Structures are given as structure tokens and as C-alpha cells.
Amino acid sequence: MKRFLLLGITLLVSVAMLMTACKKDEPNKNNTETPDTDYVDLGLPSGTKWKSANETGGYNGFYTFDEAVSTFGDKLPTKEQFEELKNNCTWEQQNDGSFKVTGTNGKSIVFPAVGYCDCENNVYGVGSAGGCWSSTPESGHAWCLLFDSIEVGVYSNTTCNGRSVRLVKK
């Protein structure tokens, strides 16, 4: 009987260790780190890698500047990183309004035309425009990347407006 009890305990410990080892491979929902495979090296001079997709969450996928900074911190691109992306990549508008951004090394990411919202949470420009917050504030405003069918630019914007968020890895 003692031998069966010892064998049973050994079996339970082995199964528990195996389950713990397998769980390490599962994504951790509380972990804010994003795997390197989610970032694309576009061959930029700074070596900045851009996440392959916008972050979800916020109000309809939009964040105010303060929400973006408090949620993502130094993972947000700076004004300078947006300018580098704009000036060193090819921007090609797609049929759905999104922009395919191709780096000097031929790799690309897409900025979807999900629109933006004003300070009252009215959504505009879905399918034709979009924008993403930087981490760079400026006198009650903050810098963001904005794009539509007419232009792509880095502009100062009111911080209560809702914009998308695209993360970077330095």
C-alpha cells in the first residue's frame, strides 16, 4: 500500500511539472511584452522596429494621448521616429484606404484607415484616414502621425482626440 501511495505521489508531481512546463509556452495574458516576431525591421537608420499591427482597446480602438502614454509608455514612437518612418519609407495607399509602408529593405507594415475621433468621441474618416499617437508632447498638444488620401504627415494635435496606437522596439 505504501508503495502505491509513493508511486501515486510521484506520478502527480510528474504530471504537475509537465503541465507547468507546457504552460510556459502559452501566452501570458498579464504579460505586456510582445514577442519580437510581432515587430518588423524596415531597415531604418535608427534600427527602430515597428509592430506589425495597431494596438486594440481604448474607445473603439482609439486612445487619448494621456491614455496612450499611461498604457504604453516608452513603447510609443517619438515624433522623430514617425518622421524617420515617413521620410525613409515608401507609402502606398491601398484600395481600402490603408497605407502599405515599405522600408528600405523591402519589408512592410500596414497602417489601416480606421479613422480617428474628436474629443466628444465622434468617429470620422473610417476607410479613408487614420492616425497614431507619438510619445512626444507639445504645449497642451502632442505629436501624431496622420494620413489620408491627400497626405501623410507628422502633426501636433489636441490630446483629448482619439488616435490609434502603433508600438515600436528600439
Describe this entry's structure for a reader.
By secondary structure, the protein is α+β, with helices and mostly antiparallel strands. Helices cover 24% and strands 29% of the residues. The chain is built from 3 helices and 11 strands, in the order αββααβββββββββ. It has helices spanning 2-23, 65-72, 79-88, and strands at 39-41, 49-51, 90-93, 99-102, 108-111, 116-117, 123-124, 129-138, 141-148, 152-158, 168-169. Strands 1-2-11 form a 3-stranded antiparallel sheet, with no helix packed on it. Strands 3-4-5 form a 3-stranded antiparallel sheet, with helices on one face. A hairpin with a 5-residue loop joins strand 6 and strand 7. The longest helix has 22 residues, at 2-23. Residues 1-31 have low confidence and may be disordered.
Q: Could you give the distance between the termini?
A: 60 Å
What is the multimeric organization of the chains shown? single chain
Q: Look at the structure and give the mean pLDDT.
A: 84
* Percent helix range: 10-25%
* Weakly predicted, low-confidence segments: 1-31
Question: Which structural category do the helix and sheet elements fall into?
Answer: alpha+beta
Amount of beta strand:
25-35%
Largest sheet, in brief, is: 3 strands, antiparallel
How many strands appear in the DSSP assignment?
Answer: 11
Order of helices and strands: HEEHHEEEEEEEEE
